[in-house]
Specification:
The protein is an alpha/beta fold. The protein binds guanosine-5'-triphosphate, magnesium ion and zinc ion (ZN).
């Protein structure tokens, strides 16, 4: 079969799939309207998205007699992406089902580009980011910095949390301590969990940091994000995966962001560990704002359009030279800048 013919056929198939989708979506809308008219659905109320599955959502009732119960809901068409943490208007149906009618405005949204460069929402209305690191898989400072940039740009508080402290040895402690110290020196909060695998873990300093906040738990696959939530909330029963024997990396066990309530009043959102939290969607000016020690010096260079690369009188390069900006952070900034510029050229 010629390539052209194959392409036509593929086009026809894509069109057909599109038409079928439209028919299905019209039918769904018609059925939902019929259910509302026949009184099968409750009046509108506020709800919270706990988790998004491929075709439905877990929605928690935020008001009424049913407050706190979780319903399996479908959504009306054209609501855009709904993610864990989104507040919605919905109607309850029978047997813990329901229909999402609209989404309320978000205070924050964490987004990241997927491997194809499309921006994907991860979680909404968060006001804190717990960046989990561990001795294994080994921390990637550039990834930590990218998360920090995302938190800075969202204007939410990041906390660096060292997990798997039970695996800290004389051999690896110095490196981990100096990594944490670097971020502490920048003014970031850091915390240590003795072990998220053992119930008797010392998590006592964490509640103060997480209560009354909605925190997204992020970090490389395998650092123990889900284990950490299971320890705080044994009923969460999140799936936990061994590290790969071959690579020592995590095996991408968690695939969906999911929200949990803490007894102390806060919320935690577990998220899938990713290989590369890209920042392709932001500009260089935003990147500079996200590195707080660089942001503090913006506007102080001799030339107004200074690129902080080779220019004389550059306030940032001179801070790198005399150690006010650490070499690791600056090279991390340069690496991320290159990645963003590379992506923009494509
Ligand atoms: N020694 C030790 N192992 C831990 C600790 N916390 C988690 N682990 C182990 O680390 C591995 C990965 O844990 P997960 O909780 O699945 O990690 P995750 O960050 O949720 O990984 P993804 O869902 O893939 O992003 C599992 O084998 C856990 O048993 C800890 O505090 N100490
Ligand atoms: Mg997980
Ligand atoms: Zn400069």
């Amino acid at each position: 079969m010629s390539k052209r013919k194959l392409n036509r056929r593929q086009e026809w198939r894509a069109e057909k799939i599109q038409q079928e989708r439209q028919v299905r979506s019209h039918k769904k809308e018609r059925d939902l309207s019929r259910q509302v008219q026949s009184g099968d659905l409750s009046s509108e109320q506020h709800g919270l998205i706990i988790c998004r599955y491929s075709k439905h959502f877990e929605v928690e009732a935020l008001e009424g007699d049913d407050k706190g119960s979780v319903h399996r809901c479908v959504s009306r068409n054209n609501l855009g992406t709904l993610v864990a943490g989104d507040k919605v208007v919905w109607r309850a149906g029978s047997d813990k089902t329901g229909v999402i009618e609209s989404r309320l405005e978000r205070s924050t949204i964490l987004e990241r580009p997927d491997n194809f460069g499309n921006l994907k929402a991860v979680a909404a209305n968060i006001n804190q980011m717990l960046i989990i690191i561990a001795c294994e898989p080994a921390p990637q400072p550039n990834l930590i910095d990218r998360y920090l940039v995302a938190a800075e740009l969202m204007d939410i508080r990041p906390i660096l949390v060292l997990n798997k402290a039970d695996l800290i040895t004389q051999g690896n402690s110095e490196k981990l301590e100096s990594l944490l110290e670097r971020y502490k020196a920048l003014g970031y909060l850091t915390s240590k969990i003795v072990s998220s695998r053992h119930r008797e873990s010392d998590l006592s300093n964490l509640p103060g940091l997480v209560d009354q906040r909605t925190s997204i738990v992020v970090g490389q696959s395998g650092v123990g994000k889900s284990s950490f939530i299971n320890t705080l909330l044994p009923d969460a029963l999140l799936e936990v995966g061994e590290l790969s024997h071959a690579s020592g990396e995590g095996t991408h066990t968690t695939t969906k962001a999911k929200l949990f309530h803490l007894p102390c009043g806060g919320q935690l959102i577990d998220s899938p560990g990713i290989r590369d939290f890209s920042l392709w969607h932001i500009g260089i000016a935003q990147l500079q704002e996200g590195f707080i020690e660089i942001a503090a010096l913006l506007g102080r260079c001799k030339f107004r359009n200074c690129q902080h690369e080779l220019e004389p009188g550059c306030a940032i390069l001179s801070a790198v030279e005399d150690g006010r900006i650490g070499p690791e952070r600056f090279s991390s900034y340069e690496r991320t800048k290159e990645a963003i510029l590379d992506q923009q050229k494509r």
